[in-house]
Amino acid sequence: MRVLVLHSHPVEESFGAALHRQTIESLKAAGHEVDDCNLYAEGFDPVLSRHDRMIYHDYPENTEAVKPYVERLQWAEALVIVTPVWNFGFPAILKGYFDRVWLPGVTFELVNGKVTSKLRHIRKLGAVMTYGADPFRAFIVGNPPKKIIKRMLRAMIKPFAPVVFLAHYDMNRSTDETRKRFLERVKREMERF
């Protein structure tokens, strides 16, 4: 399977970077063809400019500034997102990726005001995330990143597509042992992906 991995950890020596490496290694060990889209390393510009917004609905003109990213998304049969959760949301670079690349004509079409997905070629979805908050605190605020993955993105590809959601909560109080266990879980789940 062709897997696009979206990575948005800015620090190469971080635990998030270790999760990214483990995800890539495990997917490759399982025989998947992996496109590692490391948004920071690639210098992705997350800003939706005024011009981009003005042509947002004008397909294919709206894709010109992000054409290589559009092609990579269209190539994929599966999507895995590896990211920290900051302030109960995605880092700006990842949010900007969705705003700039998931465009009308690319990921959806509007027909009589109704959204129709154009991502049916993506059959599987995964997420590997780290939270500073504990699970209860994330639950209290509604855990927006989890809902985006398991509801919105899943609905954009296939409403009943399999989703692997892996989260290491309470990173502010993590230990070598909790991080080791989570890395092992990521290894297992991505090898079965």
From TrEMBL:
InterPro entries: Flavodoxin_fold, Flavoprotein-like_sf, NAD(P)H_dehydrogenase_qn. Residues 1-137 form the Flavodoxin-like fold domain. Gene3D superfamilies: 3.40.50.360. It comes from the Bacteria. SUPFAM superfamilies: Flavoproteins. One of its GO terms (cellular component) is cytosol. Keywords: Oxidoreductase. One of its GO terms (molecular function) is NAD(P)H dehydrogenase (quinone) activity. Belongs to the NAD(P)H dehydrogenase (quinone) family. This is Putative NADPH-quinone reductase. It comes from Rhizobium paranaense.
